[in-house]
Amino acid sequence: MITDIQKERTTDALSEFLPTHVHKYIKINLVVHRLIKIASCIIIVFGIVHISFAFPLHMNTDTLWFVGAGLAIIFSGLVNLIAIDRGGSKFSKWIALVTNSINCALFCFALLILKEPQVYVGIIIFLITTVAFIIELIRQPAIKGISV
Asked: What DSSP character marks residue 59?
């Protein structure tokens, strides 16, 4: 498995052989992938913290919905990581985009009810990942055969 650092070294070594626009594409792609990875890890931690507020567990429907929402947040972060793993397929990136868009919309809806800081954090983090996946889907490889 090639890490981002190895990819950077490879792209720096290849920069003298590649056209400028291809080199810029690779750099932007690495930045977007890092942004998605960091945001996804934050989303997963956000979901874990969300679930931790449900303890001690009381057996009622409110707690069940609360834990379920935390699990949905965690799974959203995992979907993001899966979508960019080893380049990811266009389909998986579309699924991640839809997932992040729906979560952003749900956090916006929650803002009407809960005007709490965590709701604003949820809106911001899911908006960032939504925009990052839009950029990822819009940008096409400059040269066929280059996979980053």
From this structure: S
Residue-wise pLDDT for 68-85, tens only, equals 999 999 999 999 999 988
Tell me which H or E stretch contains 125: helix 117-138
The pair of three-digit structure tokens given for residue 137, joined into one six-digit string: 């889907």
DSSP for residue 94: H
Report whether pLDDT(100) > 50: yes
Answer for the pair 93, 136: CB distance below 8 angstroms, yes or no: yes
Q: Where are the domains of the chain?
A: 20-138
- Indicate the pTM of the whole model: 0.75
Phi and psi at residue 114, in whole multiples of 5°? -115, 110
- Measured at the alpha carbon of residue 20, what is the angle toward residues 17 and 22, in degrees to the nearest 5? 80
Give me the chain's average pLDDT, please.
82
Q: Return d(Cα 84, Cα 135) in angstroms, integer.
A: 13
Is 44 within 8 Å of 74 (Cβ atoms)? yes
* Residue range 20-46, pLDDT digits in tens: 555 555 677 788 889 999 999 999 999
* Cβ-proximal residues to 142 (8 Å cutoff; 6+ apart), any chain: 19, 21, 22, 25
Q: Among 71, 120, 130, which Cα is nearest to 100's?
A: 130
